[in-house]
Amino acid sequence: MRVRASGADRAFAIVVYGLVLAASALALFPMLYVLAISFSTETEYLTRGFYLLPRTFTLEGYLYLMSHPGFMSALRNSVTISVVGTLINIALTTLMAYGLSKTWLRGRKTLHFIVFFTLLFSGGIIPTYLVVQALGLLDSFWAVWLTSAVSAFNAIVMRSFFQAVPIELEESARIDGSGEWRLLFNIIVPLSFPAIATFTLFYLAQNWNTYFSAILYLDNDQMPLQVFLKQMLVEDDPSISNASSVAYHYTPAARMSAIVLTALPLLLIFPFLQRYFNQGVMLGAVKG
Amino acid sequence: MKKTALLMLAVCMAWGVTAGCANKNEDRSAASGSPAGSEGAQTEKVKIDMVIASWKGGGWPDNNHPIIQYIDKKFNVDLQIQWVPNANFVEKLNVIAASGKMPDVIRLDSPALFLKWANQGAFLDLQPYLSQYPTLQKIATPEEWALLNPQGKIYGIPIYETAQNTIYARADWLDKLGIPLPKDDEFTIGKFYEIAKAFATQDPDGNGKPDTYGFSALGNAMNLGMPELQAAFGIANGWKEEGGELIPAQTQSKEWKAYLGFMQKAYQEGVLDKDFVTNTNFNEKYAQGKIGFADMHYQFSRQTTQELQKIAPNAEFARLSPPIGEGGARGNSTPSSGKIKVVLGKDMDDQKRDRILELLDWWVSAEGEDVLKNGIEGVHYRKGADGAYEMTDALKAEGEGRQSLMWNWILRGNTNTFNIYKWSAPEWAQGMEQSIGDARKYPYRNVAEGYLPSSPAYAEKGSTLGDKFLKAVVEIIAGKKPVESIDDAIAEWKSGGGDQIVQEVNAAYKAHS
Amino acid sequence: MAKSYWKRAFPVYLMILPGLLFFIVFKYIPMVGISIAFMAYSPFDGIGGSEWVGLRHFHRLFAEGDFLTLLRNTLMLNLFDVLFFFPAPLLVALLLNEIKAKRFKAAVQTILYAPNFISWVVIVGITILLFATGSGGINQLLAGWGFERLELMTDPSYFRWVWLLQNVWQGAGWGAIIFLAALAAVDPLLYEAAAIDGANRWRMLWHIALPALRSVIVVLLVLRMGHVMDLGFEHIFLLQNSMNQGVSEVFETFVYKVGMTQGDYSYSTAVGLFKSIVGLIMVLFVNRLAKQTGQEGVF
């Protein structure tokens, strides 16, 4: 702020930066532990307890995963599920939320309630599975894409974002003779970039975390990363040691590397999307 | 209003359609089964669907695994195994069952679910065919085949289980403290405590810090992960038989008081791991090298010893017999074979049934064991220059044991070397056989295993009642409550539904015997 | 008028249609499955063929000796969550909004949202590593300095706080994203005008940023109320142990133990339906409250 930097503002800034730095340190600290273990030998992990800087160094965990056919195919599956899934999500959600944001639309309240009601009540997995089966979608990514095509939560929140767009914009567009489609794509979407970027990220994360619907609907070779990861992290129940006696042992480095590699893609994507969070400035431009 | 009605209509119609479709699929799969007149001849390829729970590490990524290909070729089948992570197994199985496409082969680890579905007629009765498959029949005793089944029916193939775990001790620590390894007949529970206390207080790892414990325990299991200790105090391994009646451990006031007094003291004196409440397994606990007495099986002890030797070169877990309690009570927890079953879906045609039973008969033969456990020569192992077998690099990279999933996660015979491979050191095979033989000398059984699942009260309340009782046990051990308060927990267990469970379990017991 | 309405409205209905189809096919048709709650459901008989048992499963639920404990534990955890977790992302967003250095802001935001991708197994594992009574790093330090050990993982009085703080740690940065998006829509001219009027940063936050977030906050709060009986299963299950059972047993963990592991779908569906109805009542109540205080509400 070049206008005037008062003492109060400076104090305010110090408080803000202090708090943010403290919060970042707290967030970082356990993650550094995960990172440290991913480069450590098993012996160090077992003997040292909590630490942030490994004394040993090994890439064994990462190399193991990189050469693991299961990991690579899970990664491919996750990317497929996430990219296509998110495109479907964003297209359907944006259209629906925009439609529902029209205050003049008849039946809007009923439609909106139809969406909202699904947040509270659900039929459970068995009937959903039967629907998927009836549509012939089993063992196909479509089952995962379609059963989570729109999140009611995201649609409702996105609608409230669209409702914040000033009504004059719509009025002036209509006077220009633009139809609803042009209005949506030429004015509303560019204006709502922060919202759309946000929900893209939400959907990406949701798709990236696909676990249960993959287990329900997909085949062995279509399993995504989260299934792979969970199977590495799970500890078999000792009371059934007889049942699960394959004494298979993942090193801590391999387990933590899997966590790091699974989280990495979404951490890397964030800075790209973040650019769009600041596009709200355009609003002023349009108005002016 | 009109809209709602319309919607309901649409829903109902669509529902009818879905249900119809599900049935149609069923019909089709049944129809594609057996054309008449191809009896026994392996001319036609048969598709076999298995739905199997997978554990740590998960199943194989696809059904082109060399072992599956081997079986496909040998039996002219198309074997399709669907691995479902154990945590979601029951859900997935229910969903598949609801869809009308019951898989051909399922492994059921839950006796309650087995019983429920067997009662609903979901499984094929194997009784009429079993005698034609002698190898398969031999993997269990008639009692084991009969376990959990109604009279005259056999709805599942029993999975072999055996006593394996016993008490192990850090031999290198005993050495350092100048304590001789206790002999079988002098290893009393008093001796156990004396040594455990020495482990906790005399700095056996020599790091100058009081950071070792005599023994550890698990806070999430009724036997606290150390069943040998409860055995020594005469507490039943779940249930015991006395005078023709089945009696649950939860009512053994006197025994619990003695045991809890022992454990409370151990906790207070730092002999018992202070963190036992949050322990859910021993894997890392033992490998960290802070625990003197361990409850483990042979292979676990070898792996842990290897791991420990990276920290302490002399580390060694030595096998002991279970400690002797008052009146000579001692025991190693002994599970019953047959609690876990491999079942066949009832809707298959004769050809498929025969093919599957033929496959399973081979499966548990010596030849089948060789393939299913060790994998394929040239792919998973090979003969080295010195004539001894060794793992291939590919298997090493994937992990030893990953080739044995079908043997260990689906069905295995009653040999005791289930984790020993062709390339394992010969002393491992010997050690494993011997350790299992020794563990079986001191049977400590839950005699109600075959009857518990038929008690409705147990199904409804058993786990919550058990949790509450365990809570009291743990609180007493950690010194939050006096030992006598176990009587309140016993009273609560009985009045909360325990009495009813006792009655129902005994009724089932008497009906059977 | 009617004709021009349809001309205008038709494309809008068309936009809503694909989403609507999704909800009908994958959400409403399966709702037939709710009837499982009133049946002795068997997967082999199907929804059409299973026996109707009326309200038996609900009677069983309300007659459970622990019903009141379950209700109390569930509501208490949710209360903690709404009171302390719900505002956390808002606070993070407002703080981040005050940071002008772009690179720094991007870095900090990535760090703050990263924990969202660390699974509960790991988070709980690290907490135990640090706070286990005997071997936990923090407790060894405390003991070394002559303090009392903190039985964070086993003393039931800490359970809710541990659960809450782990939630904040994992979710605050991630949850802030949605508020930041709302803040991004604020016209920068407003800030400039306020600055010329001599408003300091604090006043701008109070009079510009917060009002811009009001409608999002209301929507999120109302939606949150619909899940007033839901808590993440996995997180609580991992934190649960024999000692804290009295405060940590909630409907999810209970249903898992008595229903899911045995495939008792009818009972777990009944418990789910009960939770949904409580959620519905809460939503209607809070939505009305919002409307009475002059907010738009969700519907």
Automatic annotation (TrEMBL), chain A:
Keyword Signal applies = no
Domain ABC transmembrane type-1 residue range list:
75-272
Q: Which organism is it from?
A: Cohnella nanjingensis
Q: Please state where this protein is localized.
A: Cell membrane
Cellular component, GO annotation:
plasma membrane
**Which key words are in the record?**
Cell membrane, Membrane, Transmembrane, Transmembrane helix, Transport
Question: Coiled coil where?
Answer: none
The protein's name is Carbohydrate ABC transporter permease
TM segments?
12-36, 79-98, 110-130, 142-162, 183-205, 253-273
Which Pfam families does the record cross-reference, listed alphabetically? BPD_transp_1
The membrane topology of this protein is: Multi-pass membrane protein
| Signal peptide span | none
Homology family: Belongs to the binding-protein-dependent transport system permease family.
Q: Which GO terms describe its biological process?
A: transmembrane transport
Q: Which domain of life is it from?
A: Bacteria
What PANTHER family does this protein's entry cite?
A: ABC TRANSPORTER PERMEASE PROTEIN MG189-RELATED-RELATED, POLYGALACTURONAN_RHAMNOGALACTURONAN TRANSPORT SYSTEM PERMEASE PROTEIN YTCP
Q: Does the keyword tRNA-binding apply?
A: no
Under PROSITE patterns, the record lists: ABC_TM1
UniProtKB/TrEMBL annotation, chain B:
Q: Which residues form the signal peptide?
A: 1-19
Q: Which UniProt keywords apply?
A: Cell membrane, Lipoprotein, Membrane, Palmitate, Signal
- The protein in question is named Extracellular solute-binding protein
Automatic annotation (TrEMBL), chain C:
Biological process terms in GO annotation: transmembrane transport
- Any single Pfam family the record assigns to this protein: BPD_transp_1
Q: Where are the transmembrane segments?
A: 12-41, 75-96, 117-138, 158-183, 204-223, 265-286
Q: Where in the cell is it found?
A: Cell membrane
- Which InterPro entries does this one have? MetI-like, MetI-like_sf, UgpAE/MalFG_permease
The record gives the membrane topology as: Multi-pass membrane protein
**Keywords for this entry?**
Cell membrane, Membrane, Transmembrane, Transmembrane helix, Transport
Coarsely, its chief localization is membrane
Entries under PANTHER family matching the protein? BLL4140 PROTEIN
**Which family would the database say this protein is a member of?**
Belongs to the binding-protein-dependent transport system permease family.
**Name of the molecule in the record:** Sugar ABC transporter permease
Q: Which organism is it from?
A: Cohnella nanjingensis
